[in-house]
Amino acid sequence: MDAPPTSDAITFFNRYTAKIEQEQIYGEPFLRWTYETIPGQIALAVAAKRVWFSKWYGWRMDRAASQSKVMPFIETYKLDPNEFQDPPESFRTFNEFFYRKLTPAARPIDSDPDSIVFPADGRHLAIADVSQTDGFWIKGQQMDLARLLGSRSLADRYATGSMLISRLCPVDYHRFHFPVSGTASESRLIPGSLSSVNPIALRKRLSILWENKRMITEIQTPSHGTVLMIEVGAACVGGIHQTFTPGAIEKGDDKGYFTFGGSMTIVLMEPGRVQFADDLLKHSTQQREVYARMGDVAGFR
User: Fold this and answer.
1) 3-state secondary structure 145-198
2) How far, rounded to the nearest angstrom, does the alpha carbon of residue 221 sit from its chain's CA centroid?
3) Any residues with CB less than 8 A from the CB of 217 and at least 6 apart, and which?
4) Contact, 137 vs 167, CB < 8 A?
5) CA dist 198 → 160, 187, 221, 237, 262 (Å)
6) Nearest-CA neighbor of 112 among 263, 244, 296?
7) Which pLDDT value is given to residue 169?
8) Which residues does 48 contact at the CB level (< 8 Å), separation at least 6?
9) Which are the catalytic amino acids?
10) d(CA 171, CA 123)
11) Confidence (pLDDT) at 6
């Protein structure tokens, strides 16, 4: 029987190996010190979640000296350069490598018109009914949609809707894409701080999701209703960059990218608009993320 994740190990189900695996966390000692010790909590309040800290770190990743980190990173985390649109030696800084583009063949987009696809590579959680989130990460923590969306009327509309949370680790491909086809609005910015969105942090304080900087886009679709896509900034993320033009978009189109750091996207759908994939629901109810790549099926209408 699968064992539930503990506070000492972050595990996920890998859709492609069909195995439960332990996450190789970039900067894990620092993360655990920050969120699990008193001195770390003090440092977090003083600097780590401040916007200036992440801007400074992002600036470092834009410096020419950061280029030397590219090949060691690729080798350490066993990335496949054959997927890259450009060769590793062409990246002038670490950030250029970090928000690299991939070849279309590396991330095929599911073609079924009824499918909803993952908007990014990463570790994903599905919540069939957002009103049932008490204890989803830890007892007593519940999703505050009004604060997450910055709108009480939107929160009421999606109060019993479905949510797909996609967490991007620093080792992941860091561009995000549209999960459905339709007509996309301008993105709306909600300013905030920049705390880590790693489970080590979220298990301590779910409110990070509505305290962090985020951007919200509404996607009008013919068959999935109005879909909300939210990008959430995180510690050491230099920025959330939108590359799309508001208007007609296709499922899998490039929407934007994060500069250096872990980060997250959230897809929020109206009630009754999606049936999530079985593996996603099974592991999510056990508070375990599912690793899957952008373009693969997250669910169907």
Assistant:
1) HHHHHCCHHHHHHCCCCEEEEEEECCCCCCEEECCCCEEECCCEEECCECCCCC
2) 22
3) 184, 185, 186, 187, 188, 228, 229, 230, 242, 255
4) no
5) 25, 24, 31, 13, 8
6) 296
7) 86
8) 34, 195, 196, 235
9) 121, 177, 263
10) 12
11) 44
Q: How far is CA 273 from the centre of its chain?
A: 21
Which position has the token pair 């985020």? 214
SS3 assignment, position 124: strand
CB neighbours (10 Å) of residue 112?
A: 11
Tokens of 67: 């280029």
Divide the 301 residues of the chain into consecutive groups of 10 and give the mean pLDDT of each group: 52 95 63 51 50 53 87 92 96 92 96 96 94 65 87 95 92 95 97 73 74 93 96 76 97 94 90 96 92 98 88
d(CA 199, CA 231): 17
List the domain boundaries for the chain: 25-98, 107-300
| CB crowding 2-28: b at 16 or more within 10 Å, else e | eeebeeeebbbbebeeeeeeebebbbe
Nearest to 94 by CA among 120, 121, 122, 60: 60
Give the separation between CA 258 and CA 108, rounded to whole angstroms: 21
Q: Are strands 11-14 and 289-292 parallel, antiparallel or unpaired?
A: parallel
What lies within 8 Å, CB to CB, of 290 at 6+ separation is: 12, 13, 14, 15, 123, 124, 125, 279, 280, 283, 284
H-helix or E-strand spanning residue 220: strand 214-220
pLDDT at 80: 95
